[in-house]
Amino acid sequence: MRGISKYDLVMVRWLDTLMYDGWTLPESFGQPENEEMRSVGYFIESGDRYISISSMIHLENGNIIKINQITHIPKKSVLEVRKIKS
Fold first, then answer.
1. What pTM does this model have?
2. Which of 21, 22, 46, 76 gives 20 to 30 Å between its CA and that of 61?
3. Beta bridge partners of 77
């Protein structure tokens, strides 16, 4: 990701999947609106298929020791990745 480094705080805008529960007639099924999501976290990496962010980082003496709650967002669903803070 251009201009984004590991552990930068980022906001990712992405499209989520939608599912409707229950039986319905095929003719009454309409096209859903896009469900845009926003996730904020610490940028971990951008792989071939996913962008990975972490909700929490553990610091000791200013050094990152551990990361927690990793979210992998499929790149094909990503609309934007914006750096919030370095």
1. 0.82
2. 46
3. none
Domain boundaries, the chain: 9-85
State the alpha helices, DSSP H only, in 31-79.
none
Query: What pLDDT digit, counting tens, does each position of 26-49 carry?
Result: 777 777 777 899 999 999 999 999
User: Do the strands 9-16 and 78-85 form a parallel or antiparallel pair, or are they unpaired?
Assistant: antiparallel
Q: Which structure tokens are listed for 33? A: 């609106």
Distance between CA atoms of 30 and 37, rounded to whole angstroms? 21
CATH architecture assigned to 9-85:
Roll (2.30)
Can you tell me the distance from the alpha carbon of 85 to that of 58, in angstroms, rounded to the nearest whole number? 17
Other Cβ atoms closer than 10 A to 83: 14
Residue 81, classified by CB atoms within 10 Å of its CB into exposed (0-12), middle (13-18) or buried (19+), is: buried
39-51 b/e (C-beta count within 10 Å ≥ 16 → b): eebbbbeeeeebb
